[in-house]
Amino acid sequence: MGRKSNKGKEKKKRRKEEQAKLAASFTLVEAANKQEDPMATMAPFKKYERNGLNLDIECKKVAELDKDTVDWAFSITKNNMQTLYEESNWGWNDRLKKEELTEDKAWFLVARDQEGQPTAFSHFRFDMDEEEEVLYCYEIQLMKTARRKGLGKFMMQILQLLANKAQMLKVMVTVFKMNTESRDFFLKALKFELDETDPGLCDPMEADEYCYEILSKKTVLGAKKQQEGNHCCSGGPHNHPQCC
Ligand SMILES: CC(=O)SCCNC(=O)CCNC(=O)[C@H](O)C(C)(C)COP(=O)(O)OP(=O)(O)OC[C@H]1O[C@@H](n2cnc3c(N)ncnc32)[C@H](O)[C@@H]1OP(=O)(O)O
């Protein structure tokens, strides 16, 4: 019969390890989504009193929000974003945006004034992205009057802390390339970077074809794992020149 190769055994072992890793990631996402109030131990972050703003900040699942707040979130998103969507090749669709905002998985961070009126919100999710556990920020939208007062940065800081607490690996966002203000906000002020899953990065020859970029910022755990070499090159689907 000859000698039996160890290759098959090693492959099987690797597959089992990958399956276990994936199952652990799903468990973390599930636990994050089961939280009653992710900000329960973050009292100092529930108030924003700076630069003329006096706001209370809450974190809730969309199902726990009142209809007026959800309707307001849709309106401000439409006001802020419709033109950008229309100028891109995505187009704007009321129904699709409403569906996205109200999917079961949607979490909301809402900043309200002292009359209870919403001023800013973020729609985010604890989710899997390319086999990694992440906090994905779908929207961060501020009323015009509340901008450039540090509120956006404060809310993103909260998301980064929530991601740390839930042991996610990174916070991700998708940004239109032509939305230069928000690109500056994420890339320059918050030190986000082009994510390894950004389509332009994966396919540089076609980069100009994409009207958007995927940006991310590692959590504490994500940065640690990256340092340990546990990143996309340890068996992931990508092969990036900058990290492989
Ligand atoms: C994932 C997505 O949702 S992408 C879409 C993002 N949302 C939008 O485009 C909607 C309209 N814009 C907004 O809601 C807000 O302006 C945001 C969320 C982009 C930024 O929030 P803000 O509270 O205004 O930003 P904040 O005051 O925290 O700014 C922090 C820093 O970011 C940078 N920055 C913020 N806004 C801008 C801008 N318009 N132009 C250039 N740099 C900016 C600056 O460095 C700023 O620091 P500084 O004011 O000391 O110079």
TrEMBL record:
Q: Which one of the record's GO molecular function terms can you name?
A: protein N-terminal-serine acetyltransferase activity
Can you state which reaction this protein catalyses? Answer: N-terminal L-seryl-[histone H2A] + acetyl-CoA = N-terminal N(alpha)-acetyl-L-seryl-[histone H2A] + CoA + H(+); N-terminal L-seryl-[histone H4] + acetyl-CoA = N-terminal N(alpha)-acetyl-L-seryl-[histone H4] + CoA + H(+)
| Keyword Transferase on entry | yes
Q: What is its main location?
A: cytoplasm
Residue ranges of the region described as Disordered: 1-21
Q: Which keywords annotate this record?
A: Acyltransferase, Cytoplasm, Lipoprotein, Myristate, Nucleus, Transferase
Q: Which Pfam families match?
A: Acetyltransf_1
Q: Please name the InterPro entries in this protein's record.
A: Acyl_CoA_acyltransferase (IPR016181), GNAT_dom (IPR000182), NAA40 (IPR039949)
Name its cellular compartments: Cytoplasm; Nucleus
Q: What class of enzyme is it?
A: transferase
Q: What is its EC number?
A: 2.3.1.257
Domain N-acetyltransferase residue range list? 63-210
Q: Name one GO cellular component term.
A: nucleus
Basic residues bias: start-end ranges: 1-15
Family that this chain belongs to: Belongs to the acetyltransferase family. NAA40 subfamily.
Q: What is this protein called?
A: N-alpha-acetyltransferase 40
Q: What is the lineage of its organism?
A: Eukaryota, Metazoa, Chordata, Cephalochordata, Leptocardii
Name of the encoding gene: NAA40
